[in-house]
Design goal:
Helices cover 39% and strands 24% of the residues. It has 271 residues and is of the alpha/beta class.
Length: 271
Amino acid sequence: MKKDMLSFVLLIAAVFVTGCGQKSKVDDPKVIKFASHNLKVYEDTTKVLAKEVEKLGYKLEPVFLADNVQLNEAVENGEYFANYHQHIPYLEEFNTANKAHLTPAFKVFVDRSGIFSKKYKSFKELPDGATITLANDPGNNFRGLQILADAGLLKFKEGVPPQKVSQKDIIENPKKLKFIEVDYTLLARGLDDADAGFLYATVATEFGLDINKDALGIERPELQAPDIIAVRKENAGSEKAEILKKAYYSDAMKQALKDAFGGKEVLHPAW
């Protein structure tokens, strides 16, 4: 019995020490815990960002994750100070759905979106009944539909804001296009089976497609949403947030955005 009690006490002590060690690391005033997406562009630019942060006397501790929800949860629950993976509409959607408290710390770049196809070179070539893949989240779903509408392939009910449009608002679809809504991460793969589909320039480039040459249509500028670095609301404008912004808004980061795509200007810096 005494042996069991001793083991229990030692276990509690170990947990307490471990917990204290983690808290100290999170609260280190010179360490910025940073959750980034594991897509190449985010990984590559985060590595350069870490060097720029170090020049300012801080240390960036990044983790790379594939799940957008997990990336936001990591900042919402205080495990990480900031994240790097989303645009404002996606952040707002997450906040609403999860009663979260994330906010943009600053804008980083604009990732244009378009409709692509591995089978056809123009919208005119799309056959009647063609299948089109769209993102299934509201922050991206409307984008593909609006590109098709701008090309004259769809018409929506009057009075619906562009950012709120969904399939239920379609009143004219002369080619009888069929839509398949999939998770954002599966959009590129979905092009193998669909006639055309929605992609961002960054994702398209990773799969050998150039938005300037291969897109059947590109989202109009006023609907494009810049990517951001996100933090909890109480951390916006904090010293760490300002250090991140100063480090990101550097010539080295502008070059990193190009270098991530072999020198091509796939992304447009937002500063």
